[in-house]
Structures are given as structure tokens and as C-alpha cells.
Amino acid sequence: AQRVTQPEKLLSVFKGAPVELKCNYSYSGSPELFWYVQYSRQRLQLLLRHISRESIKGFTADLNKGETSFHLKKPFAQEEDSAMYYCALGVGTGNQFYFGTGTSLTVIP
Amino acid sequence: GAGVSQSPSNKVTEKGKDVELRCDPISGHTALYWYRQSLGQGLEFLIYFQGNSAPDKSGLPSDRFSAERTGGSVSTLTIQRTQQEDSAVYLCASSQSKNIQYFGAGTRLSVL
Q: Which residues make Cβ contacts (< 8 Å) with residue B76, sequence separation at least 6?
């Protein structure tokens, strides 16, 4: 079975502090991992995906197949980073997705 | 349109009534998804359409829930005999390639 786990429902950090949002997945095949973000009163949108190996808004995420993790990191949190973050697993060739339960990040000024 | 469009944006109904939620995906997107977003439950997959293939209905919580996608474009999610626990935000997303989903603004359903 496919499963995505985000162990923290709520996470608070001070502005300028490092932040890490945890995501672990369970999938026997070759996974595609994504982070989606939902800012207040905005639509859910893609933040980044592992195959791009890019940094978006200062965030990075590395796929660790040994630990089956795809943690989202940013060295210096900003107030505008406050949002709901969802980790997602794409499987197979059929565009099927599984989302975690989300982590609500609050950056304290 | 520029993005995925969902209507209505808000729906208040009485327990036991049927409701229909509409999703208009991005033109040309072959994949369409419905999710339910509830407090404390995150994003729950409901149903997935891919082109003309049979839909993946594995996420539908009960037989009161059904969805159609006509002509490979617009989709309707129907909830029959609504219950209070059906209250949530229902999100639609479409996708074409590279597994990137584009989400609508959602329909907030309140069952009184």
C-alpha cells in the first residue's frame, strides 16, 4: 500500500530560524515526491518536486530512498512561509497521488 | 479559463438533501481528481479520471458519493442524502503531464 506520513500537524518556528517539515513515504516502486503549499485564502499549489532538484522560495527537499523520506527544509524561515504544507507521492504511470495529512507552519516574527 | 474552476464556491444544505459540485478543468488536461479537505484529516483522495479509462473510485467513502466526467472535460461530484460528516472543502485538480496537479479554489460544503 502507498502511504505518506507527515508526523507534525503543527510546527512553529521563529523568523530567521531553520525549518524542516518531515515527510516519510511507503511505496515499493520508484516514487515521485512533491511538496504542495496552501497559503491563507489561496489555492493549493505545487511548491517543488524531487525530480527537478530545484530550490523554490529558499526551500529544498532531497529524496532519501534509504530512509524513504522527502523532508522539506529552509535555512532561514520568513513570515511569508506561514502556510499549510502537504507532501505528496505520485505512483505508477497513471498520475495517481497520495497526500499526507499536512503540516501547518507558523513563522513567529 | 486560466485555471481549474469549481462551482459553487460555497454550498449550504440540509441533512438528507442531494448536492452536486462542479469542476471545470484546465483545457486539454486529461487527468482530473477530486479530494476532500477536512480539519485534522488533511487531503483525502476521492476519485481520479484519466482520459477515457474507467475512473479510480477507490477513495469514495460510501455509495452516497459518485462522480462523472462528461466528454473528458467537466466533472460533477454528487453526494446523495448528505450527512453532517460530509461537511468539508471539496477540491478538484487537473493534470496533463509531469504529474503536476493544478487545483481549483474548492467548494465549501456545509450540511446542517
A: B20, B21, B22, B23, B67, B68, B70
Q: Evaluate the CA torsion angle A26, A99, B100, B55 in order and state its sign.
A: positive
Are the beta carbons of B6 and B21 closer than 8 angstroms? Answer: yes
Of B6, B49, B90, the residue nearest A95 (C-alpha): B49
Mutation to test the B interface, candidates A95, A98, A101, A103, most B Cβ within 10 Å: A95
Rg from Cα positions in chain A: 13
Helix then strand count (H, E) for chain B reads 0, 10
Mean pLDDT for back-to-back runs of 10 residues, chain A (109 residues): 87 97 92 93 92 86 92 97 94 76 95
